[in-house]
């Protein structure tokens, strides 16, 4: 009683947890929406078959048991792809179970759903019985000490030894409690898309409990009874009887082939067992949880299996005995060592493993049963009542029924071979889902018939090769079946089908069932055709991650849509009034639409219908929901029809609801944007091409073209889409009223022909009928108020394809095109002009460059010539000076009478010779100076000198001249003049030149003034403003200089008046040399003069700093 | 570490590891370790299974962790 009490208390505790989780969810603070709980619920995979069975299996076939847990680890690698996709699809379609998933994928096919459900119930029900059996066995073991090892009683004989009536058996009451739990927490709402938070919380907790329990026993055995892993393994390795268990491939049961089969089976089981699908997909809260579960769940499996090996081997070493009793080593080992509490903990762990599996499986199966077997039946019976109340109770009843059936199975065939091996038989059934499910996820061409035939064949072979032999082993069918085959037909032997021998039991079955299943699915899918619903569902599943517009919603409409209240009422029958109302409110909220049904367009109605169907599907499964909605609509006379059919029949001018207008504005703005982009291109060909692509892409027109007026006066096709080449050649038109494009071009009006059967222009007929055009529209292309061509679009699908709104838009697009072409033409002209200009500029540049080079050459030549001239002059002057000096010298000797006396006439003549010779020598000296300067040969050594001495010496030289002409000379000199940087000899020459000129050009009695002072103000232009300068000026009252002559005053050989040369003498080189000399002193000379009154020559020489 | 472009962030790794795992846990690879032989006092096949399994889980952990960083 104590154990029973503990068990029931534990289960009640789970009720509490579940209740708490549900309450938390209502408050919006879910305790299960996290990856850790998600990973723990996945551990419902570890049923009592793991908890007890793994140990037993290890003592039979060695390490082969581990494949059952390594397989899921491998599958976890693919979860990021497959599981995520399954979850996304499930959420988007309100899918309720794996049967619903397959049924929805293959066109919401009710038969497929029913088929999968039936197979699942056959495959899983015995598995539930196995769990109940484990509870019963272990319970009996705990409360009846005489059954314990050592008494040589087989654990599997428990039931036979203690044939309690069912009302006295714990397992029965536990079954009832579990059914109650399932009914309360597994079927709270009808909408299966709602999570079962309570159930999930309890399952997760049970996963923790079973792990802890197993761990505790494991640690006790490994370190309490033995001396660690190494100790146990070494003992086994040295044990003659058991050491084989450390290896595989020692018998047919653990051959490499069997190993491979187990890996494949377990890889599939973790995804396709209905309960695994339920916890992994349906109960998933967020796709993000997958990532953590990908390693947490395998880690869980790893941990729980870590101690299987020591417990099994420990049990063998401690207890030994027949293999069947090894299943309960987890309990018997602690019992043997009088660890009562530990064994109770182990029992609770096993109870957790069993109950979590039973609850989840029964809820899953019940959902499938309701949606795919009961619902279709109710629909066939056409029950009109409010089903929402009944449906939830049917579901709860289903849970009870399944658990009780499981209990019944256990009572009847509890010890059969079949039940004991049911785990792997279930796995073999689950893997049959793989071809159509994985194919359905990634292959759009997989069809309903392919899936149905594949699944049927797979299950048929599964049943024949696994279940029939199990029946035989259980003694329900004659053994002869397995020896001679049924009815003596040897090749029908279920374990050696078609003579296939040398395969182990499960590999043999897997080969035939999965092989035939896969091939049938692929082959039949390839030859099968799909209807629209199937194609649509295939796209929805395979392309679930692609953002696609549901084109069916655009292409279909309801002819006669029911009122909202009627829809709500219909929904309420299946999901209850409250939820039905909520669905409608949610729909209008998410669509941001507050209007009435009458104002909804076809698309909205299609979406609403889809939403209604989806919400019903959440409660009764997709196939039933589809039948319900279709029947309902049909009953109202509202059937779905192709939108294109209606276009031809009825007017398209719908009253534009506000929402529709908004839609239009959106559409227009998109197109405006598109056409703006088109217009911004400057390549007319590109513009036309873009625009035609736009028409094809956005409006699905079959063909379209741009005709432009050419110079030859024809409207020629410049760009087109969809026209056959033979028509393009003949499609150029003369612009006249005999053809449609001509009419459009001449009248400038849009031409719309909704039905080409009624055309009346023979020239256009050939193209239109030849191309198979049913309706078309043409719009003129304007460029700057002038029509330059015609834009055409046509449909081969339907008459009346083009709506008024489209035509408006089409007209606008044609205008945009015109603008773009016009702009492009202008741009072209501009480009041509630009090019011409560039050529001209280039030509001119070349000419200029050539000139520039010529000038440069001339300049060089001139410079050279100049240099040669200067050199020549310098040389010549030198050559002339020597003889001139001789001439002067000897003339003076003659005048002085040294060579004998001369008479007066001779003396006068000689004096003339001497004068002229002296003048000539002066001239030659001047030329020599100038040439030296110009040839760059005169180098001055500049040093600080006092100007006073220079002035004194100069005046000494010139005094006689001043006296001769009786001129008034005054010297005005500043006090303490600083030294200047100069050459004394040249400075003297400068002063002499300037004073000489002054004396020369000043009449007797005139005035000459020499001033010398430090420049205090800013130096004049041409001088370094940083330096100080001495300013020296010579002022006279001479003849003066005309203003126009001032500029050329300092040129060479300049005497302003040719007659002056004769009158005043001089070479005309004096000022030029003076100027150069001053410049060589880094100074400048200026002159100012008033004609007839006098001149002032001023020069500046830098002073010593 | 560069974001998104790193070689370890590619999704194809999962396919490779899946295939590798499948090879490592099946004949003929397991035949290499299925020997009556002890390493550090443990049966070699036992060690191979336990360590290989744990390594697989570690690989999943590392690559989901990397994927988490990618996002």
Report on this model:
The complex is a heterodimer of chains A (1105) and B (71). Helices cover 64% and strands 8% of the residues of chain A. With 1105 residues, chain A is α+β, with helices and mostly antiparallel strands. Among the domains of chain A are: 34-434, Sodium/glucose cotransporter, CATH 1.20.1730.10; 549-649, no CATH class; 940-1102, Heat Shock Protein 90 (2-Layer Sandwich). In chain A, helix 3 (48-61) packs across helix 18. The longest helix of chain A is centred in the C-terminal third of the chain and has 92 residues, at 804-895. Chain A is elongated. Chain B has one domain. Chain B has helices at 12-24, 29-33, 44-70; strands spanning 38-39, 42-43. In chain B, strand 1 (38-39) and strand 2 form a beta hairpin. The mean pLDDT of chain B is 82. The interface between A and B is medium-sized, with 35 and 31 residues.
What can be said about this structure in brief?
The complex is a heterodimer of chains A (1105) and B (71). By secondary structure, chain A is α+β, with helices and mostly antiparallel strands.
Layout of helices and strands:
The complex is a heterodimer of chains A (1105) and B (71).
Chain A: H1 2-26, H2 35-42, H3 48-61, H4 67-78, H5 82-93, H6 98-105, H7 110-143, H8 158-161, H9 170-186, H10 197-225, H11 228-237, H12 256-272, H13 274-282, H14 289-306, H15 308-318, H16 323-326, H17 329-336, H18 340-381, H19 387-413, H20 417-420, H21 422-430, H22 434-442, H23 448-473, H24 480-484, H25 505-527, H26 532-542, H27 551-555, E1 556-558, H28 564-575, H29 577-590, H30 602-620, H31 622-635, E2 640-642, H32 643-649, H33 658-680, H34 684-699, E3 703-709, E4 715-721, H35 725-730, H36 740-747, E5 751-753, H37 762-771, E6 775-783, E7 786-795, H38 804-895, H39 904-934, E8 943-945, H40 947-965, E9 968-973, E10 980-982, H41 984-1001, E11 1007-1014, E12 1029-1036, H42 1058-1064, H43 1070-1080, E13 1084-1090, E14 1094-1102
Parallel strand pairs in A: 9-11
Antiparallel strand pairs in A: 1-2, 3-4, 3-7, 5-6, 6-7, 8-10, 11-12, 12-14, 13-14
Chain B: H1 12-24, H2 29-33, E1 38-39, E2 42-43, H3 44-70
Antiparallel strand pairs in B: 1-2
Helix pairs in contact in B: 1-3
């Amino acid at each position: 009683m104590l154990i029973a009490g503990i068990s029931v208390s534990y289960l009640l505790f789970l009720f509490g947890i579940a209740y708490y989780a549900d309450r938390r969810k209502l408050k919006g603070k879910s305790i299960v929406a996290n990856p850790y709980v998600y990973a723990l619920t996945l551990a419902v995979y570890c049923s009592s078959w793991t908890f007890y069975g793994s140990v037993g299996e290890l003592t039979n076939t060695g390490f082969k048991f581990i494949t059952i847990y390594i397989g899921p680890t491998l599958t976890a690698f693919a979860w990021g792809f497959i599981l995520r996709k399954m979850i996304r699809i499930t959420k988007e379609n309100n899918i309720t179970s794996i049967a619903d998933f397959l049924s929805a994928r293959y066109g919401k096919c009710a038969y497929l759903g029913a088929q999968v459900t039936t197979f699942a119930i056959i495959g899983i029900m015995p598995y539930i019985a196995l769990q109940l059996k484990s509870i019963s066995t272990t319970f009996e073991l705990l409360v009846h000490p005489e059954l314990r090892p050592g008494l040589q009683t087989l654990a599997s004989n428990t039931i036979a030894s203690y044939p309690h009536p069912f009302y006295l058996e714990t397992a029965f009451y536990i079954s009832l409690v579990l059914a109650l739990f399932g009914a309360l927490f597994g079927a709270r709402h009808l909408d299966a898309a709602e999570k079962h938070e309570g159930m999930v919380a309890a399952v997760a907790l049970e996963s923790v409990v079973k792990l802890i329990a197993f761990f505790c026993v494991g640690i006790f055995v490994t370190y309490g009874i033995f001396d660690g892993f190494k100790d146990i393994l070494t003992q086994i390795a040295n044990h003659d009887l058991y050491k084989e268990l450390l290896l595989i491939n020692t018998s047919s049961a653990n051959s490499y082939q069997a190993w491979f089969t187990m890996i494949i089976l377990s890889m599939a089981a973790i995804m396709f067992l209905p309960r695994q699908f339920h916890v992994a997909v349906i109960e998933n809260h967020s796709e993000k949880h997958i990532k953590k579960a990908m390693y947490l769940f395998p880690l869980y499996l790893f941990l729980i299996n870590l101690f299987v090996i020591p417990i099994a081997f420990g049990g063998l070493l401690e207890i030994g005995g027949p293999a069947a009793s090894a299943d309960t080593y987890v309990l018997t080992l602690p019992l043997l060592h009088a660890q009562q509490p530990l064994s109770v903990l182990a029992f609770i762990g096993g109870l957790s493993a069993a109950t979590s599996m039973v609850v989840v499986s029964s809820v899953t199966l019940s959902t499938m049963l309701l949606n795919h077997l009961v619902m279709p039946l109710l629909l066939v019976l056409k029950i009109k009542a409010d089903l929402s109340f009944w449906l939830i109770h049917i579901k709860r009843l289903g849970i009870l029924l399944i658990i009780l059936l499981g209990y019944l199975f256990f009572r009847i065939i509890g010890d059969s071979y079949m039940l004991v091996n049911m785990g792997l038989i279930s796995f073999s059934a689950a893997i049959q889902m793989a071809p159509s499910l994985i194919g359905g996820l990634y292959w759009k061409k997989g069809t309903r018939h392919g899936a149905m035939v594949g699944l049927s064949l797979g299950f048929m072979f599964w049943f024949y090769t696994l279940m029939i032999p199990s029946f035989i082993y259980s003694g329900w069918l004659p053994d002869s079946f397995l020896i001679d085959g049924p009815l003596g037909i040897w090749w029908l032997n279920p374990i050696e089908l078609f003579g296939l021998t040398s395969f182990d039991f499960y590999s043999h079955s897997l080969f035939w069932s999965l092989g035939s299943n896969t091939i049938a699915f692929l082959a039949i899918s390839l030859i099968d055709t799909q209807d629209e619903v199937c194609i649509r569902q295939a796209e929805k599943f395979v392309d679930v991650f692609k953002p696609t517009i549901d084109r069916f919603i655009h292409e279909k409409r309801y002819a006669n849509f029911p009122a909202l209240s009627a829809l709500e009422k219909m929904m309420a029958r299946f999901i209850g009034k409250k939820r039905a109302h909520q669905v409608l409110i949610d729909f209008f909220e998410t669509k941001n639409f507050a209007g009435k049904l009458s104002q909804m367009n076809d698309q909205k109605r299609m979406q609403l219908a889809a939403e209604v169907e989806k919400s019903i599907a959440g409660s009764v499964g997709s196939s039933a929901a589809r039948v319900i909605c279709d029947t309902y609509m049909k009953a109202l006379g509202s059937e779905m029809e192709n939108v294109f059919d209606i276009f031809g029949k009825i007017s398209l001018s719908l009253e534009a609801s506000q929402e529709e207008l908004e839609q239009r504005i959106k559409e227009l703005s998109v197109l405006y944007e598109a056409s703006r982009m088109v217009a911004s291109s400057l390549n007319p060909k590109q513009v036309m091409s873009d625009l035609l692509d736009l028409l094809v892409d956005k409006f699905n027109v079959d063909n379209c073209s741009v005709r432009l007026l050419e110079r030859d006066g024809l409207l020629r096709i410049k760009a087109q889409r969809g026209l056959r080449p033979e028509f393009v050649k003949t499609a150029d038109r003369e612009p006249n009223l005999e053809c449609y494009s001509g009419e459009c071009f001449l009248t400038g009006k849009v031409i719309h022909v909704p039905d080409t059967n009624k055309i009346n222009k023979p020239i256009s007929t050939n193209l239109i009928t030849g191309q198979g055009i049913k309706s078309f529209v043409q719009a003129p292309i304007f460029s700057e108020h002038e029509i330059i061509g015609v834009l055409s679009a046509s449909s081969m699908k339907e008459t009346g394809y083009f709506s008024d709104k489209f035509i408006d838009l089409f007209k606008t697009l044609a205008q945009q095109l015109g603008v773009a072409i016009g702009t492009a033409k202008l741009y072209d002209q501009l480009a041509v002009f630009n090019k011409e200009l560039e050529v001209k500029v280039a030509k001119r540049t070349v000419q200029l460059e050539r000139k520039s080079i010529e000038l440069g050459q001339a300049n060089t030549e001139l410079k050279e010539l100049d240099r040669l001239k200067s050199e020549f002059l310098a040389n010549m002057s030198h050559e002339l000076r020597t003889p001139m000096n001789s001439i002067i010298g000897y003339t003076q000797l003659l005048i002085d009478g040294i060579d004998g006396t001369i008479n007066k006439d001779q003396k006068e003549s000689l004096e003339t010779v001497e004068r002229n010779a002296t003048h000539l020598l002066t001239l030659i000296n001047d030329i020599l100076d100038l040439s030296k300067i110009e040839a760059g040969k005169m180098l001055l050594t500049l040093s600080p000198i006092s100007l006073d001495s220079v002035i004194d010496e100069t005046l000494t030289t010139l005094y006689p001249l001043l006296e001769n002409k009786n001129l008034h000379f005054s010297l005005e000199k500043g006090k303490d003049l600083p030294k200047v940087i100069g050459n004394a000899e040249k400075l003297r020459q400068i002063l002499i030149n300037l004073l000489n000129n002054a004396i020369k050009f000043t009449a007797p009695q005139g005035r000459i003034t020499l001033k010398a002072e430090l420049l205090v103000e800013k130096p004049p232009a041409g001088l370094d403003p940083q330096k100080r300068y001495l300013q020296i000026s010579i002022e006279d009252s001479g003849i003066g200089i005309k203003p126009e002559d001032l500029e050329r005053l300092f040129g060479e050989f300049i005497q302003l008046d040719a007659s002056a040369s004769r009158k005043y003498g001089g070479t005309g080189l004096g000022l030029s040399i003076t100027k150069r000399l001053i410049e060589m002193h880094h100074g400048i000379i200026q002159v100012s003069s008033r004609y007839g009154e006098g001149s002032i020559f001023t020069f500046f020489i830098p002073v010593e700093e | 570490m560069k974001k998104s472009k790193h070689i370890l962030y590619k999704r194809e790794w999962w396919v490779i590891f899946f295939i590798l795992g499948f090879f490592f846990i099946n004949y003929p690879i397991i035949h290499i370790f299925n020997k009556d032989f002890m390493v550090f006092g443990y049966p070699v096949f036992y060690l191979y299974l336990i360590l290989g399994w744990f390594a697989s889980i570690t690989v999943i952990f590392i690559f989901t962790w990397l994927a988490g960083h990618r996002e």
